[in-house]
Amino acid sequence: MKNLLLLLFLVFSFQSIAQVDLINKVKDNQSENAKESFSFESVVDLERTYVKNQGASGTCWSYCSNSFLESEMARMGKKPVNIAPMFTVRNVYEEKAERYVRMHGHLNFGQGGALPDAIEMLKIYGTVPMSVYEGLNYGSDINRHGEMEGILTGMLDAVIANKNKKLSPVWKDAMAGVLDAYLGKVPDEFEYEGKSYTPKSFAKEVVGVNADDYIQITSWNHQTFYEPMVIMVPDNWNYGLSYNVQMDDMIDIIDHALKNGYTISWAGDVSEKYFSWKNGVAYVPEKELREMTPEERASMFNGPKPERTITQEMRQIGYDNYTTTDDHGMQIVGISKDQNGKEWYLVKNSWGESNDYKGYLYMSKNFVRLKTMSFLLHKDGVPKNLKSKIGV
Fold first, then answer.
1. 10 Å Cβ neighbour count for 299?
2. Under a CB-based contact definition with an 8 Å cutoff, are residues 139 and 105 in contact?
């Protein structure tokens, strides 16, 4: 029994620290003078707010989807506001905690989440600007959720253990107290640009998006195409649905959306050696890393290189074998061409501005074909023929 408990602890601990470790891991993937070897020309460049930093927390899903909502405001002709990612995160912790207890602990409770969580929390709780709720109430200038997550998990496990033979009526209050201590109390009312709002009125009157207009797209062989499915990954704690389309349909949807003014909230795997955060480039080289010479490895990101052809079957194998996992979320905000005329996606990250492109990177379409878990967008960003196929 002790060994089983230790194993469970390690599994859930790994899930919670995976994103933080990932940031450090991909810093090693780089080539010298890579930026000088690329020449990118903008094709589509959509409006967005400034690059933010999720710090030492696994909250990319909140940062990228709230950044996406900020761009949606701009698309709708509104003045974009910097939405508070930690307000979303706090509400997800509370929602997830209730489900964790109802599932007797058989649920991934941690810092991770799914792309639609920001939309769902906006619909239920509203939202607030970052200036009102930074979520840094614990003496740190960046997000650090390890201690808070450990305390919350310990509390919830004590609730599940049920030593009193029935759940107390105050366990949710106790959890809210911890969240208040670390992230700050949620304001019932606040001032913004000279007007008073509640979180719900701010979401309705200022942000002004309709949560029901947004859908998630994915692509897997083991489910029926053009029907909704649940992506089986630990961070999909709310069992959110995605529309399952063919691999090349994903690219058609992303291209159509971007060219018509809609940005994309994207989730995928960035753990491969051919994803370089430092150099701001992600692609799929023709050769596997183990087949490359030391010279080829050292120059992986020095200018455009030929890429492997990606198939639907390759995607599925990666998912089935855990080589494609739900690592990270970012916002796709444009399309650019390199010096050879090949198109890349311009991507806004939430790891600060420490790389060659000040917080942005370029992902090849083949990388997106292979490493996408799912993406979120406004349903009107989907081409008409595919909207008809999936029934939205």
1. 17
2. no
0.85 exceeded by the pTM?
yes
Over the stretch 233-244, which tens digit does the pLDDT of each residue have? Answer: 999 999 999 999
- Lookup result for tokens 């080539």: 31
Query: What's the rounded Cα separation, in Å, for the pair 378 and 392?
Result: 11
For 369, list phi and psi in degrees, rounded to 5: -60, -45
Predicted confidence (pLDDT) per residue in 55-83, tens digit: 999 999 999 999 999 999 999 999 999 99
Q: Where are the domains of the chain?
A: 2-390
Determine the Cα–Cα distance for residues 64 and 72; give it in Å rounded to an integer.
Answer: 12
Q: If pLDDT is split at 50, 70 and 90, which confidence band does 26 have? A: low
User: Which residue matches tokens 């959110």?
Assistant: 240
Please answer whether residues 114 and 99 qualify as being in contact, where contact means their C-beta atoms are separated by less than 8 angstroms.
no
Task: Determine the average pLDDT of the residues in 89-111.
Answer: 96
Q: Which residue has the tokens 């990612």?
A: 85
Ordered DSSP codes for 91-159: HHHHHHHHHHHHTTT-S--SS---TTHHHHHHHHH---BTTT-----SS-SS-B-HHHHHHHHHHHHHH
The pLDDT score that the predictor gives to residue 16 is 39
Instruction: Output helix, strand, coil percentages for the chain, rounded to the nearest 5.
Output: 40, 20, 40
| 61: helix, strand or coil | helix
Residues 2-390: name the CATH superfamily: Cysteine proteinases (3.90.70.10)
- Please state, in angstroms and rounded to a whole number, the distance separating the CA atoms of residues 10 and 25: 19
Please name which of 120, 124, 144, 125 lies closest in space to residue 134, comparing C-alpha atoms: 144
Q: What are phi and psi of 391, to 5 degrees?
A: 75, 40
Could you tell me the two tokens for 146? 């390890």
DSSP E strands, the chain: 41-45, 190-192, 195-197, 214-218, 228-230, 241-244, 264-268, 275-276, 281-282, 328-337, 343-348, 360-364, 372-378
Instruction: State the Cα–Cα distance between residues 216 and 308, nearest whole angstrom.
Output: 27
